[in-house]
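Notes from hallway chat w/ T.B., transcribed later so I don't forget. T.B. wanted the structure written out for a chain they're using in a teaching module, and asked if we could keep both sequence and C-alpha cells in one place. Agreed to drop them here.
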Amino acid sequence: MYPDGYANAGADAVAERLRKGTGHRLPHFVRLRPMPGSTPREALLQQQELLEKLAPYAAGFYIDGLAEGWPPDEALSYLLEVRQLAAAAGKPALLYIPPQLPEGMLRELQPASWSGVVVGEAQREEGSRRICVGGRSVLSAQLSLIRRLRAAGAATIVAAGAVSQPQDALELLAAGANSVQLHSGLVYAGPGLPKRINEAILYDRIRDTEEPQPPSFWANWGWMSLLGIGMMIGGVLAWLIASTSVLLPYDETFLGVSRSVINRFNGHIIHFMSHDRITLAGTMISLGIFYYQLATHGLRFGSHWARTALLTSCTVGFSSFFLYLGYGYFDPLHAIAAAVLLPMLLLTLRGLKDYPSRKPPGLRNDALWYRAQWGQCCFVVLGFGLAIGGLTIAFVGITQVFVPTDLAYLGVTPELLTNWNEHLIPLIAHDRAGFGGALFSLAVAIAASALWGVNQGESWLWWTFLWGGIPGFAAGLLVHFHIGYTNFIHLLPVYIAVLLYAIGLYLLYPFLVRRAGKEADVSVTASLAEESF
C-alpha cells in the first residue's frame, strides 16, 4: 500500500538524480502523471515542463492519464497531445494503462499507434487516495488485458508488476507480453527474484534444444578440480605435521632453537602454534572441497556464478600467501605450494564459456522455497561473518599478532617473547596472517555459493556445504579443546558459525536435495507470497 500515489521528490530532484547516474547503463523510463485535481489543459502544461527537464536523461516515458476521472474524450485528447510532445523530444512514449481499464475504451486508445503499452499494477483503494500494488487479482486482470492488447495489435507490451514468482512472469510472457517489470514482487520474494525469472525464461527457451557438450577435463575445469585436490592433500599433510612435530626443520633454523628448548621456556607456545596451523589446515581442506565441487558441478557446465566464485576466491587466496612477508619470514613450503597451484589456476582460465542451466528451475514461492530462503540467509550471514573474521585475523597477524585472550593463554607478554627470541613473534605472525587470508578466501566461496547458487534441486551444493564445512569447523573446535584454549569469548564466534551452519543445512535440505532431479512443480495452487496478499 502506498499512502499517496503521487508522493515523490519532484521533477528537479529526479532530473538531478538521473543526471548524476545510477551506476549502470540500463535505460531509465520515467512515468509521467498529472498533479491531482488538474484539468486536461493544466496537465498538458505540466507534462511539457516535465518532458523538457527529464528528456535529456530518460530513454523513454510512460504516459499515465487514464485514472484522473476525466471524460473519455478529454483523456484521449490529452494522451494524444502528450504523445506528440514526447515524439518532438525524440523519446518513445508508452501508454500506461491501469488494470481496471473499462472494456469499451481499449479500441479508442489505438494501442498500435503508441511505441508500446505498459499494463500497470496499481489500483486505487475505494474511498481514499491510497494505492494498492500487486496481488493475484491484479495478475489475473493483467493477463486478460495483455491478451486483448495483443489482439488489438499493440507493438510492445510491458507487464509492469504483479509478479512475485517466476511462474507469474512466464504466464504474462505466454499471454503476449514482450517484457516484465518488477515492483511489489521484490517485497515478497526478495532481490533474487530477477535472477530466478531470467533463469526460468532461459530454461523455457532452451529446454528442447540440443545440449552443448561440456569441455574435456584438460580444457579448463579439470585443472581447477586438481587445484582443489591439491588443496585437500596439502591440508591433510599440514594437519599431520601440526598435530605431531608442529615445527618444520626450517622453522627451527629460523628460530635458532629446537622445540624442546621452546617447551622448557613456555609449554604453551608450541600448543598455540599447533592451534594456528591446524585451523589453517582444516580451512585448506574445506577450500579444496569447495574448489573441487564448484569446478566439477559448476565450471564444467558453464555456470557463470561458479566461475565468479572460484576466480574471486582464488585471487584472494593466492594474494594472501604474501601476507606473512610483512614480518620478514619467508616460508619455503608456502612458496612451493603457490608455485605448484598457481599454474593450475592459470590453465583454468583458458576458453571458459558461460551457459544457462539445463536443470528445471523453481517456479513458485511455495513452502519449501520459503524455508530455503532462511537457510540461504544463514549461509550468507555465515560467509560474511567468516570474511570479517578472516580479515580481522589477518590484520591482527600483521600488526599486533596477539589478542588479549591469546596472551592470557600463553601467560606471557609480547615483550618477554621478543626478549627471549626475536624471531618467535614473526614466525607466529606468519601463521596467523596466512590463516586469516585462507579463511577470507573460504568465506568468499561460501558467500558466493549461498548468494547465487541456491537453486531448486542442486543437491551437489548441499553436499558441498556439508563436507566443505566439516574440516574447518572440526579443526577449529577440536584443537582448542585439545590444547585447553577454551576461553568462551574467544570461541563464541565459532559457536555462532557452527549454529548458522547446522541450521542452514537443515533448512536447505528439502529444497536442494529432496527436489533434485524433479521437474519444476507447476501444480502448486497457493504460495506463501500469494497468501500474504
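Follow-up for T.B.: DSSP finds 21 helices and eight strands in the chain. Might be a good example for the class.
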